Amino acid sequence: MAPTYTLYHGTFIQLPRHIPIDTKPSLGINTGVLWVSNRDGKIDGFDWSVNPDLEEALDLFVKSKGWSVWRDGVDAKDGVETVVIVKGGRDGRNGFFFPGFIDTHIHASQYPNAGIFGSSTLLDWLKKYTFPMEKSFGAEEEGERAPPQAYTVYNKVISRTLSHGTTTASYFATIHVPATNLLAALCHQRGQRAFVGRVCMDNLVFCPDEYHDAFSEESVSATKEVIEYIHKLDPEGKLVAPIVTPRFAPTCSHAALSGLGRLASSYSPALHIQTHISENKNEVLLVKELFEKSEGYAHVYDETGLLTPRTILAHAVHLTPEERALVKKRDAKISHCPASNSALGSGLCPVRTLMDDGITIGLGTDVSGGYSPSILEASRQACLVSRLVASQASVTTGRETLSVEEALYLATRGGAQVVDMADQIGGFEKGMYFDAQLIELGPAVESISHESSHDVVLGGTEDTGNVDVFGWENWEEKIAKWVWNGDDRNVRAVWVSGRLVHKRGV
Amino acid sequence: MAPTYTLYHGTFIQLPRHIPIDTKPSLGINTGVLWVSNRDGKIDGFDWSVNPDLEEALDLFVKSKGWSVWRDGVDAKDGVETVVIVKGGRDGRNGFFFPGFIDTHIHASQYPNAGIFGSSTLLDWLKKYTFPMEKSFGAEEEGERAPPQAYTVYNKVISRTLSHGTTTASYFATIHVPATNLLAALCHQRGQRAFVGRVCMDNLVFCPDEYHDAFSEESVSATKEVIEYIHKLDPEGKLVAPIVTPRFAPTCSHAALSGLGRLASSYSPALHIQTHISENKNEVLLVKELFEKSEGYAHVYDETGLLTPRTILAHAVHLTPEERALVKKRDAKISHCPASNSALGSGLCPVRTLMDDGITIGLGTDVSGGYSPSILEASRQACLVSRLVASQASVTTGRETLSVEEALYLATRGGAQVVDMADQIGGFEKGMYFDAQLIELGPAVESISHESSHDVVLGGTEDTGNVDVFGWENWEEKIAKWVWNGDDRNVRAVWVSGRLVHKRGV
């Protein structure tokens, strides 16, 4: 019989659930114990009064709960609950539990192109690199299953994102139903929380030959197929959910957009929706041309029923004040993708302005417009971009600058709000899923004496990555060092709904 | 007896030595053999007609040269030259030799602060984080040796930069002579090519209490002490050289600047000089105020004899056209530090404009204004910044955008020009020092069959980093993937003057 609970002990760091407007969040840092029910993968409680470094304190705590420590193959006495104990990092390694990252915008199918975009910007990049790659996810013959490439790439994407601590991802797949279903199945099997969307694109003016929906009804009917598949795969939607995915206005007819809007609202609760908006100036002009009757880009989505509280709009670099007001009014969400916006030269997204408007924002990697599948990298880039926005202001107040804590807020709490799961993921509150990563920054750099200084040249110690802790740093400083120089080497383990889905090293 | 030569075989990738203005460089990709004389660490020749994958071809080549393969403890016959053979990467691991990176601007003493700068910008960051850290490198009592902290930090900086493939660094130390000498000694001992500068700052208006030169003569005399130490340490200047280092105009009196200018020119050849220029708008205003008689920031350095062909000016984000013309006229060099400029919100350096002016540019990490000691990260950031410059242009031609190859050019050839060693480092020409890194991107991602797809969750294969090669990429694409997602895990070995100074794994 499986253990009733898993008890995690050590340091738990998270961001506050709510930030009053005009204040900067501080890290919530607690040491103690937190236990997760293995029945539903949810946090059952925590106790920050237990000293996690004292074995006796742990023993006492376990006894006080009436639990017995679980042993494989040994059944507990009737009625006695069992517990497995997991330590938060090895001694002296600066370990801590952190909420799993939420990637609110990632194109799983584009992953093999990560880092390949030459000097292109959005529209030529799509035609030169992206569409040909996505096209290769089609089955050889209609009705057949996805090609081997889809298995390879989708497994790799899941492995990579998990290894970087991403516990929830909102994926764009391709237009192909079998490959999209496969992505959903793999996420379900591997245990990554995911929204999986079949990409819709029926506008032949912009879409390439041989990679588009035949007509607007196909956008809707093929999406429906995927929705049904995912609902069968995960009837309660505990891990994987469908998401309606019109690529973006330039690739979709008004009929397809409206059909998808109706489709999303025909379910109860309404389905999630994801698309792109105002990423690039030329794209904005193109939408103006294609939808000349609409007041703006956001209005195109609004008029077709796609601007909802469950809609994720990626990018939003060039929204007008009127569009921002509309997005806010509809409570639609924004996925900020700074690495992508810089890499494709799309521009500097004015995140502070969006935040001041009260719009809900999370982070996205936007692979492969973004070059990295890491939300830690996205957090870093969000900080950089905000500093560059500040540098462009005529009067520099520094307010535009995102703090490290704000970036991490967007990466966890913000992302949870964006996927409309703020009560379920993004933090360590009771009743939330235990979606978490165990981070280890590594041991402090030791003093090197004169005599031995020539010995360190070819030393072969364990690779704990590029964060160097010297020993004098407080937790805020250590977290800053993690954000700026951390990578997947610092991610020792990842859990989704309490299930271990990635671990690293011994 | 040591072997006469080391023969490296495999793929060698480099940038062209000269790029005609208005053209973009292409990668120079060759496979074959290259041999280095172990007498002086210089490249003695190469032959791209030898197939490095065929053992017989290697044997034949070695015989044709009249060499015998070196065996430890076995002396070759009189007059016979011996050779050690080094393979460029393991089979199927996408390995290649690349010129070592040149970091033209790094503050070794600030390394423990990497990633810690809060929301500050240049001037408050210096006061809050940087000066206190630098101050701690002082000896307890005058005349004593450097504190243990200096050993620890400087060794760590050398280890980290070597591990990222930096074979040459131009270091700022602190104002302390013993610690600066120590840095030079450690570089010499560990085998990293370095310029080491004792930081000069005597302007009490800006400098903090207890961390400044007592008077302008001290700036000069203390610098002289370090120069003499380094000249004794490395009389021929084969590995480590002194560099005159006025921190920047706001911290220096006119007398100190002039004294240092005279000092540099009193040597033959004239000494290298390094300082900062026009990093931040408020700094530019401050210089205007402090040096009201000067026409501009660059003019302050020119008037004090500091604007020379051997001068490295870090940043140059906000130079006026007149200043750019002056810098070009004096043939002074610029160290572009994009990670730092974004992290401190200094602004977007218009690199293309500087290049079009014909100014020589290299890359700098600017640790710890820059958060990372990696020049690969600086290359990536240079690409991102140039794309953002392009996005700000009223008409976007895409010309502003640095290609991956241009960024790597700056990281190697450009850096070599900046430190006035273009004939000696930065490429694989005959007669150059073998300053090189062996990169392995890792094996191609393999197809995963349906059946085994659930086995990959907790797999524990060798960690080859975040670059995923799928097998269809040409070298240009693999290099792009390296620039965008590579890190120190891809650096298998590093040589300076043919000496192995870093290796990774087995």
Automatic annotation (TrEMBL), chains A, B:
Pfam families named among the record's database cross-references: Amidohydro_1
Cofactor, free-text remark: Binds 1 zinc ion per subunit.
Domain of life: Eukaryota
Entry keyword Glycoprotein: no
InterPro entries: Amidohydro-rel (IPR006680), Guanine_deaminase (IPR014311), Metal-dep_hydrolase_composite (IPR011059), Metal_Hydrolase (IPR032466), Metallo-dep_hydrolases (IPR051607)
Enzyme class: hydrolase
GO cellular component, one term: cytosol
Enzyme Commission number: 3.5.4.3
Record-stated family: Belongs to the metallo-dependent hydrolases superfamily. ATZ/TRZ family.
NCBIfam families documented for this protein: guan_deamin
Role, per record: Catalyzes the hydrolytic deamination of guanine, producing xanthine and ammonia.
Record-given protein name: Guanine deaminase
UniProt source species: Talaromyces stipitatus (strain ATCC 10500 / CBS 375.48 / QM 6759 / NRRL 1006) (Penicillium stipitatum)
